[in-house]
Specification:
Blueprint: H1 7-17, E1 29-31, H2 37-44, E2 49-51, H3 59-72, E3 78-80, H4 89-94, E4 99-103, H5 115-122, E5 126-133, E6 143-150, H6 157-181, E7 184-187, E8 190-193
Parallel strand pairs: 1-2, 3-4
Antiparallel strand pairs: 4-5, 5-6, 7-8
Helix pairs in contact: 1-6, 5-6
The protein binds 5-O-phosphono-beta-D-ribofuranosylamine.
Residues 2, 4-8, 38, 81-82, 102-104, 165, 168 line the site of 5-O-phosphono-beta-D-ribofuranosylamine (GRF).
Amino acid sequence: MLSGRGSNFVAIAESIREGRLKGAEIAVVISNVAEAEGLAKARELGLPAEIFVSKGRPRAVHDADVIACLRTHGVELVCLAGYMRLLSPEFIAAFPNRILNIHPSLLPAFPGLDAQRQAFDFGVKVAGCTVHFVDEHLDHGVIVLQRAISVLETGDAHSLARRILAEEHIAYSEAIARVVSGDYEIRGRRFVKRDE
Ligand code: GRF
């Protein structure tokens, strides 16, 4: 599910095409923004793509339409990739521990918007991205994986965001592979490989 550029979605689609994400296929791409670049890319790739414009509609009503669409397409794992809208509690309850999100910071630092700039302005020396399950709090659920990079003294917030994005494109597919494998347990807040 996306609202904009869709580069994480494209990276996931490439991983699948190149056979790096065994057992996964993209059942449908959903956008809440009709002009989203990612939606056009989904169509170019020949994937089912649906628009549910959210603007001006109550969250629960919009989400009910999206949930119905996900069910119609047999979706088992929902991946938010730049989907700029909070999910209703009903949505989260409909897919318990089956919704992933990617966030461009090392959570729990810098949740919310413009995380890369927040991190840069704070002066952190290490930054990165997080793939996590979605729960009822913003950028908060169980962490599946993180990738970290050093913040360069020569860079600015834009170059940091670009470098983090490159890590995101690796991280999301890796996280999906781990979840799809089913070989994990959630202990408290910890996502751990299942004991033999
Ligand atoms: C990414 O930085 C992601 O971490 C954040 O939104 C951005 C989406 O970028 N949640 P894209 O649409 O995947 O290119």
